[in-house]
Amino acid sequence: MKRKVLVITASKSIRFLLHTVLNDQFSAITASEAGDAMYWLTQSELPAAIVVDPELPDINTWEIVEYFKTSELYKNIPMVVISSLEEEEIATVCTRYSVEAAFHKPFNPVDLTKTLEALIKSPVAGSKKLLKVV
Question: What are phi and psi of 24, to 5 degrees?
Fold first, then answer.
């Protein structure tokens, strides 16, 4: 059975791209806003990883990252941020909330897939280390 990865981004094209690319290795579940993602989480088992763009239409920027990474229930789920915000801001906020990896848009989906594979297979998945901002 494939491990589930929750992808949360307002961009329809990025949701489609990641759903297509990730489905070879994982079962990609996509959500266009925080409310949809939270609803899915209440109805299903926890995902193996979360890929999120911190700019979502229904909440403030970075609010969902803060929520997941400070929640006792979700904080140990590996997270990858994908964002078009300034690289320095991405690195600062991801370090503050112990996000495992971050990619600056545009990004290579193959690199993101490899990063997810490493985070999910790692015995220290959920460790509090920022791997990279690409």
Answer: -65, -40
DSSP 8-state class, residue 128: S
Tokens 């994908």 belong to residue: 82
d(CA 120, CA 51): 12
Structure-block tokens of residue 101 = 């990896």
pTM summary value = 0.90
The Cα 115–Cα 31 span in angstroms is 20
Residue in this structure with the two tokens 């700019």, named with its chain if needed? 55
Per-residue pLDDT for the chain (134 aa), expressed as one digit of tens each?
A: 899 999 999 999 999 999 999 999 999 999 999 999 999 999 989 999 999 999 999 999 999 999 999 999 999 999 999 999 999 999 999 999 999 999 999 999 999 999 999 999 865 444 445 455 66
